Amino acid sequence: MTGRCPSFEGSEALASTMLELVDCQLGNAVEQSYGLLTRAGSPFGTAITIALTIYVALIGFRLIFGRGRLALGDLAPRLIAIGIVLALATNWGTYQRLVYDLLTNGPAEAARWISGEADAPELMARVDEAAADLVEVSDAWTRLRTAPPPPAAAPPPEGAQAAAPAPPAPAAQPAVPSPGAFGAEGPTGPRMLNWSAILLLLIAAGPLLAAKIVLGILLALGPIFILLGVFAFTRGLATGWLRASAFLALVPLLSVLATAGALLLIGPLVDRLVADAAEGRFSTLQALGLFAGLIVLAGATLLLLRVAHMIASGWTIELRRAADQPAGAAPADRPGATAALAMPRADQIAFAIERAAASDPARLTLATPAPFRIEIPSASGGGSGSADPVPGRRIGQSTPQAGLPSAIRPLRAGEAL
What is the pLDDT of residue 335? Predict the structure, then answer.
């Protein structure tokens, strides 16, 4: 990918040249950064080896201590994760096709399929042409305003022949526009046209170039975040990187669509201004209308950026696998399982009983225990006739078991506690 990039020398196509320059420079920078990260003997290569070794060792320890299962459903996601890290973090060709090209060129291709318009470089060329037309009309308007009046015809000398033909009358000059309402230093119309040209370039090329630059920086750091996605305690960083990359990939898509719509809206007005300027006519009202329309388009572009952020932030990326949970643990997607695991042991037992009762009440039907009487000998050493010193006191209630002392016996029929 590394090659010679264009320059601005002698180029009037500002937006298209800037887009081509940014694409070329960022492509070279990402490739060079990837090569520096993955070169032989680099610290990142050593980090990949250590991280994957620890990852495999943790899998082995989980199997040894019974916290994991030797099943395909448990081991397959882990093996796939190792394969993804080795494929994307050590091979530039795979990373370029699956990550770089997808995030940089994919949105532009999608925009061309959706709108049926030209791709981003051709749209930027049309933007440059429209901005150049606005600047030319503004310059012609300014020259007309500041042009000196034509010199008056000199009177004929004395004694000149009366039959000499009179000089032709000077052609009618177009009316000079009056200064605008913002001051006498310059007309409102030319300034509105210059500001419209700047605003058009910002709307078309600003979000597109800014998103590409930041996306290039994230892609240069991509192998690091891919490696961080292996472990559960660093997986959130990888998720954030993926969401940010998705947002920055959506911005060019929406920006290209907004630019195509802006050119359709302002194209006829720009052509009208150019045609009127060729005939020496200039309209401040048209210039103000163009500037106001571009302000509305700028607001729509900001809303599109907000929409792209909402779409990317609403993307739920669940990288946690079921194999990360200990053996016998309840699945995280089961209702109430997460809350139950966070309870104390006694509350977990009660929670399990309630769930079992809700599912099958017949299983939890308990027999009513028979009452019993505990006979306590008196302090004088009497027999069982002196029972409880407090007559009628209820000592307890349970189910009699074999081997209990004779003082604990079931109540006889009709016997009071």
Answer: 45
